Amino acid sequence: TYTAATAYEDGTNLPLSEIAETRLYCNGDTVTPVLAEPGADGIFENLELVLPAGDNVCYATHVATNGQESLPSNESTFRIVPSVRPNPPVLD
Fold it and tell me: 36 burial class (0-12, 13-18, 19+ CB within 10 angstroms)?
């Protein structure tokens, strides 16, 4: 989940209706978002479908209806658990 921005950089009020898209960038890729959702509903859905198994370090941005993309948010780590069985235990 995330908290949507409420202001532009100059302090002007930013209504939710002026957030065109929220983008999620991960693992050092600053060009291609792994996920882009319209608006800012506060939830990134289906991360397990777009991120590889393991730890993924990500940040988000908003794109306003004026076309300007925000600076990056703080980073957060998402752990995606593999969809395969774990190795068996070793008995001594």
Answer: middle
